[in-house]
Design a protein that fits this description.
This protein is an all-alpha fold. It contains five helices and two strands, in the order αααααββ. The chain has two domains: 2-126, no CATH class; 135-160, no CATH class. The chain has helices at 2-28, 32-59, 61-68, 71-93, 100-126; strands at residues 136-137, 143-144. A hairpin with a 5-residue loop joins strand 1 (136-137) and strand 2 (143-144). It is globular. It starts with a helix and ends in a 16-residue tail after the last strand.
C-alpha cells in the first residue's frame, strides 16, 4: 500500500515542481524585496538541512533523536516539506540562476529523495508498522530494544 502513496507523491511532484519554479521566476524574481527575503530564507533552510544531514550521518538517526529530543520530529517534518522548494528558490533567485525547467527537475529529485529519507527515519525510529518500539542500532549492528521486556511483544529476539 505504501508504494501507491509514493507513486502518487512522485506524480504530484512532477506537476508541482515546474509550477512552483515558474511562479518563482515569473512573480517572486520581479520583486527586489521579496526576492531577497525568499533567497536568504531558502539559504537558511538549506543550511539547516545540511546540518541535519551531517548530524544524522555522523551520529545516526537514533542518537540524533536522543540528543535533540522530540523536536527532532518537528525539524525532520519541516525539512521534508521545505527542502525542495528552498533548493528551487536558491537556484532561481541567486545571481546566477539556472533555467527553470532544470531547476524543476532538481526540485522533484530532492523532494522525492527527502520523502524516501523521511520514511527511512520514521521506520528506523518507530518500526515498519509505526506501532513497535524504537529499534536502536548500536555500533555493533545488533538490535537493542530498550522499551520492551518480553520477546513476545516484538518480532525480533533480544540481543545484547
Amino acid at each position: 500500500m505504501e508504494i501507491f502513496g509514493l507513486l502518487i507523491a512522485a506524480g504530484f511532484g512532477l506537476f508541482a515542481s515546474p509550477i512552483y519554479c515558474l511562479i518563482v521566476v515569473k512573480l517572486v524574481k520581479r520583486s527586489v524585496h521579496l526576492r531577497a527575503i525568499a533567497f536568504w530564507g531558502a539559504i537558511s533552510i538549506l543550511a539547516l538541512s545540511a546540518v541535519h544531514l551531517l548530524l544524522i550521518s555522523f551520529s545516526g538517526i537514533v542518537a540524533a533523536r536522543e540528543a535533540i529530543g522530540t523536536t527532532f520530529e518537528i525539524i525532520q517534518g519541516f525539512l521534508l516539506l521545505t527542502a525542495a522548494p528552498a533548493l528551487g528558490a536558491a537556484l532561481l533567485l541567486g545571481k546566477r540562476s539556472l533555467w527553470w525547467p532544470v531547476t524543476a527537475g532538481l526540485c522533484w529529485f530532492v523532494g522525492f529523495s527527502a520523502l524516501l529519507f523521511g520514511i527511512h527515519v520514521s521506520e528506523t525510529l518507530y518500526g515498519v508498522d509505526g506501532q513497535g518500539p524504537p529499534a536502536f542500532r548500536e555500533s555493533t549492528g545488533t538490535l537493542n530494544h530498550r522499551s520492551y521486556d518480553s520477546d513476545e511483544k516484538w518480532p525480533f529476539r533480544r540481543m545484547g
